[in-house]
Amino acid sequence: MTTPQHGPYSPPNHPGQPGPPYYGHAPYPVPGPDDYDHRTSTAPLVATVLLAVFGPAALFLGGLSVMATDSCGTDCPTALTTWLYLIYGTILFGGVLSLAALVTAWSLPRKVRYWNLRRWAAIATVAPSVLVIALVCTIPSP
Predict the structure, then answer these.
(1) pTM of the full predicted structure?
(2) Which of 84, 89, 127 is nearest to 105 (CA)?
(3) Which residues in the chain show pLDDT less than 70?
(4) CA dihedral 21, 22, 27, 30 (to 10 degrees)
(5) Cα 122 to Cα 103: distance, rounded to the nearest angstrom
(6) What is the mean pLDDT of the chain?
(7) From residue 28, how far is each of 25, 31, 37, 38, 52 by CA, in Å?
(8) Helices marked H in 2-140 — which ranges?
(9) How far apart are CA 99 and CA 77, in angstroms?
(10) Which residue of 52, 62, 74, 80 shows the fewest CB atoms closer than 10 Å?
Protein backbone atom coordinates (compact mmCIF):
# COMPACT_ATOMS: atom_id res chain seq x y z
CA MET A 1 0.00 0.00 0.00
CA THR A 2 1.42 3.37 -0.94
CA THR A 3 1.14 6.57 1.03
CA PRO A 4 -0.41 9.55 -0.79
CA GLN A 5 1.75 12.63 -1.03
CA HIS A 6 -0.90 15.22 -0.22
CA GLY A 7 -3.15 16.23 2.70
CA PRO A 8 -2.51 17.52 6.19
CA TYR A 9 -1.16 14.18 7.46
CA SER A 10 1.08 13.37 4.51
CA PRO A 11 4.83 12.83 4.93
CA PRO A 12 6.92 16.00 4.76
CA ASN A 13 8.29 17.19 1.45
CA HIS A 14 11.57 17.99 3.13
CA PRO A 15 13.23 14.79 4.32
CA GLY A 16 15.35 16.61 6.91
CA GLN A 17 12.35 18.09 8.76
CA PRO A 18 9.98 15.59 10.36
CA GLY A 19 6.28 16.27 10.03
CA PRO A 20 3.19 14.96 11.75
CA PRO A 21 2.60 11.23 11.43
CA TYR A 22 0.41 10.04 8.62
CA TYR A 23 -2.54 7.90 9.74
CA GLY A 24 -4.26 7.50 6.39
CA HIS A 25 -7.14 9.94 6.93
CA ALA A 26 -8.17 12.89 9.08
CA PRO A 27 -9.63 11.70 12.41
CA TYR A 28 -12.92 13.63 12.21
CA PRO A 29 -14.28 15.91 9.53
CA VAL A 30 -14.81 19.45 10.77
CA PRO A 31 -18.48 20.41 10.37
CA GLY A 32 -19.29 23.57 8.50
CA PRO A 33 -21.64 26.21 9.91
CA ASP A 34 -24.50 25.11 7.64
CA ASP A 35 -24.19 21.38 8.37
CA TYR A 36 -27.01 19.60 10.18
CA ASP A 37 -26.41 19.25 13.92
CA HIS A 38 -27.60 15.94 15.34
CA ARG A 39 -27.43 17.18 18.95
CA THR A 40 -29.91 20.04 18.55
CA SER A 41 -32.50 18.75 20.98
CA THR A 42 -30.13 18.05 23.89
CA ALA A 43 -29.93 21.54 25.43
CA PRO A 44 -33.65 22.38 25.04
CA LEU A 45 -34.63 18.97 26.39
CA VAL A 46 -32.44 19.37 29.48
CA ALA A 47 -33.80 22.90 29.98
CA THR A 48 -37.39 21.65 29.67
CA VAL A 49 -36.84 18.90 32.24
CA LEU A 50 -35.09 21.28 34.66
CA LEU A 51 -37.83 23.88 34.20
CA ALA A 52 -40.47 21.23 34.92
CA VAL A 53 -38.72 20.57 38.24
CA PHE A 54 -37.50 24.04 39.27
CA GLY A 55 -40.45 26.06 37.92
CA PRO A 56 -43.15 24.69 40.24
CA ALA A 57 -40.67 24.63 43.13
CA ALA A 58 -39.88 28.32 42.56
CA LEU A 59 -43.59 29.23 42.38
CA PHE A 60 -44.35 27.24 45.53
CA LEU A 61 -41.43 28.65 47.54
CA GLY A 62 -42.07 32.16 46.22
CA GLY A 63 -45.69 31.89 47.29
CA LEU A 64 -44.67 30.69 50.72
CA SER A 65 -42.23 33.57 51.14
CA VAL A 66 -45.13 35.86 52.10
CA MET A 67 -45.38 33.88 55.29
CA ALA A 68 -42.04 35.41 56.31
CA THR A 69 -43.84 38.72 56.79
CA ASP A 70 -46.63 37.33 58.98
CA SER A 71 -44.68 37.74 62.20
CA CYS A 72 -43.81 41.41 61.65
CA GLY A 73 -47.23 42.59 60.48
CA THR A 74 -47.03 46.12 59.03
CA ASP A 75 -43.67 46.95 60.64
CA CYS A 76 -41.52 44.79 58.35
CA PRO A 77 -37.91 45.87 57.77
CA THR A 78 -37.07 47.44 54.46
CA ALA A 79 -34.63 44.66 53.58
CA LEU A 80 -37.34 42.03 53.88
CA THR A 81 -39.87 43.90 51.74
CA THR A 82 -37.19 44.64 49.15
CA TRP A 83 -36.32 40.94 49.06
CA LEU A 84 -39.99 40.03 48.57
CA TYR A 85 -40.29 42.55 45.71
CA LEU A 86 -37.23 40.94 44.11
CA ILE A 87 -38.77 37.49 44.46
CA TYR A 88 -42.13 38.47 42.97
CA GLY A 89 -40.55 40.57 40.22
CA THR A 90 -38.34 37.65 39.27
CA ILE A 91 -41.34 35.32 39.25
CA LEU A 92 -43.33 37.69 37.03
CA PHE A 93 -40.70 38.80 34.53
CA GLY A 94 -38.67 35.62 34.81
CA GLY A 95 -41.67 33.53 33.81
CA VAL A 96 -42.03 35.52 30.60
CA LEU A 97 -38.27 35.30 30.00
CA SER A 98 -38.27 31.54 30.63
CA LEU A 99 -41.11 30.95 28.21
CA ALA A 100 -39.51 33.10 25.49
CA ALA A 101 -36.11 31.46 25.95
CA LEU A 102 -37.60 27.97 25.87
CA VAL A 103 -39.49 28.69 22.65
CA THR A 104 -36.31 30.16 21.18
CA ALA A 105 -34.20 27.16 22.17
CA TRP A 106 -36.63 24.72 20.55
CA SER A 107 -37.32 26.77 17.41
CA LEU A 108 -33.79 27.66 16.29
CA PRO A 109 -32.73 26.04 13.01
CA ARG A 110 -30.95 22.71 13.39
CA LYS A 111 -27.60 23.93 12.12
CA VAL A 112 -24.18 23.88 13.74
CA ARG A 113 -23.91 27.68 13.68
CA TYR A 114 -26.80 28.03 16.18
CA TRP A 115 -25.35 25.64 18.76
CA ASN A 116 -24.02 28.36 21.06
CA LEU A 117 -27.21 30.45 20.88
CA ARG A 118 -29.31 27.36 21.61
CA ARG A 119 -27.17 26.59 24.66
CA TRP A 120 -27.50 30.14 26.05
CA ALA A 121 -31.26 30.11 25.46
CA ALA A 122 -31.47 26.87 27.44
CA ILE A 123 -29.49 28.45 30.30
CA ALA A 124 -31.76 31.53 30.23
CA THR A 125 -34.76 29.20 30.48
CA VAL A 126 -33.74 27.82 33.86
CA ALA A 127 -32.00 30.89 35.34
CA PRO A 128 -35.08 32.76 36.73
CA SER A 129 -36.38 29.71 38.58
CA VAL A 130 -32.99 29.02 40.12
CA LEU A 131 -32.70 32.71 41.08
CA VAL A 132 -36.10 32.65 42.83
CA ILE A 133 -35.12 29.53 44.79
CA ALA A 134 -31.82 31.15 45.77
CA LEU A 135 -33.59 34.36 46.86
CA VAL A 136 -36.11 32.43 48.95
CA CYS A 137 -33.35 30.41 50.60
CA THR A 138 -31.46 33.58 51.58
CA ILE A 139 -34.41 35.73 52.65
CA PRO A 140 -33.53 38.05 55.56
CA SER A 141 -35.16 37.41 58.88
CA PRO A 142 -37.86 39.87 60.07
Answers:
(1) 0.74
(2) 127
(3) 1-28, 30, 142
(4) 90
(5) 10
(6) 84
(7) 9, 9, 15, 15, 37
(8) 42-64, 78-107, 115-137
(9) 33
(10) 74
